[in-house]
Amino acid sequence: MFDWTPQEFIRRMLRGVLSGVVAYLLAYYLPLVLLPSGFIPTEYTTTYNYFVVVAVLFSALMEFFSDTVVAYALGIGRVFLITLLLIHSTDGGTLTMNFTEDDSDIELIVNVSTFLTILACMCILDIAKYALQAINHVIEGEVGEKALEQGER
Amino acid sequence: MKVTIRVLRLVTLAFWIFIALSVSTVIYSAAKTDISSDYEEISTGTTIMVNLYINITNNGLYEIKDVHVTLNLYEPNGRLLDSLADSRDKISPGDKYIVDMTVQAEKSNITAGVEELIAMTRIKLKYAGLISTELIVNNTVEVDPVTGSSISPSLMRSEDWSDSYAGGFVLAEADSFLEVRRRV
């Protein structure tokens, strides 16, 4: 499927690792340094880690498979996964936090469904963009192959 | 096809930038919203009163809409003894909204055997027309406290929401929400 030379393979590997490291720094390390501790409630730490894993893994893989149709498929997968994680982690758009302080029970409910709808729409737009790019990539590849065949004849 | 993809790429990029800017300004504005409150329980010979004072100052860039403040006093079995509500359509940037309400219950009206009541404070508001927030605080109120003592423990300090928890008002730290003073 991919006729890469060993040098090309290693180059892609290095680019993938570099991209993963950059994604890790941007998605995890930088917020950790810039934001005050406790910014993300403990209930949502695991979900945030899932987001980071998806961002890092898909960035690395997309860079590794760059200039191939697989990269666009991975792009669609990444957007799809992030959308699902967003919907799941916010329980459909409602964040609930419970606290107990001395004799007071405190419940904080934040409805972010409007934001979630906007983000979901953006994700759908991103999926459409990746799908079109994939189709375009395949068409260009076929046109290029035909042109080569005609040239050989 | 290439032109379509390029346009789509630019449009999505512009949308993402717009969303990022909107979210940043909403969070920044929300963090600047100042909510201070004072909660007080007063027990006289025949009556139990709960006073709630809330001051919301909108220091942000967006309007705070549909503000509802409710104070209920009820028994643990769910029997409502008194209830008060106040609301305001919007608090414009720079505006203040002050609520001072007192609910009360006659001790003779309380079901026999009930040793404590529940005072439930509910604050609902919508920030920038996007984020709906609801804060519910349940406090227990002793029905028959020891007479003669005067305790004013500051269980929780009243502070700005902007200072209380990183992330602004939507994630306001609950333990810095109400200042509780008891006069027995």
Average pLDDT across residues of chain B?
Answer: 78
Question: Any idea how many domains of chain A?
Answer: 1
User: Could you report the average pLDDT of chain A, rounded to the nearest whole number?
Assistant: 87
Shape of chain A: elongated
CATH class of chain B: Mainly Beta
Number of helices of chain B: 2
Q: Tell me the CATH architecture of chain B.
A: Sandwich
Q: Could you tell me the number of beta strands of chain A? A: 2
Give a brief outline of the structure.
With 153 residues, chain A is mainly alpha-helical. Chain A has four helices and two strands; from the N terminus they run αααββα.
Q: Keyphrases for this structure?
A:
heterodimer, A: 153 residues, mainly alpha, two-stranded antiparallel ribbon, 2 strands, 72% helix, B: 184 residues, alpha+beta, Immunoglobulin-like, 4-stranded antiparallel beta sheet, 8 strands, elongated
Notes on the protein architecture:
- Chain A is mainly alpha-helical and 153 residues long.
- Chain A has one domain (6-152).
- Chain A has helices spanning 6-34, 45-64, 69-89, 113-152, and strands spanning 94-101, 104-111.
- A two-stranded antiparallel sheet of chain A has the order 1-2.
- With 184 residues, chain B is α+β, with helices and mostly antiparallel strands.
- Chain B has a single domain, classed as Immunoglobulin-like (Sandwich).
- Helix content of chain B is 18%, strand content 45%.
- Chain B has helices at residues 2-31, 161-164; strands at 34-43, 47-57, 64-74, 80-91, 96-106, 116-127, 131-142, 180-183.
- Chain B has a four-stranded mixed sheet, with no helix packed on it.
- Chain B is elongated and about 80 Å long.
- Residues 146-184 of chain B have low confidence and may be disordered.
- The chains are: A mainly alpha (153), B alpha+beta (184).
- Chain A binds chain B through residues 35-36, 38-39, 41, 97, 99, 101-112, 114-115, 118-119, 122, 125-126, 128-129, 132-133, 135-136, 139, and chain B through 1-2, 4-5, 8-9, 11-12, 15-16, 19, 23, 129-140, 155-156, 165-167, 170-175, 177-178, 180.
- β2 of chain A pairs antiparallel with β7 of chain B, so a sheet runs across the interface.
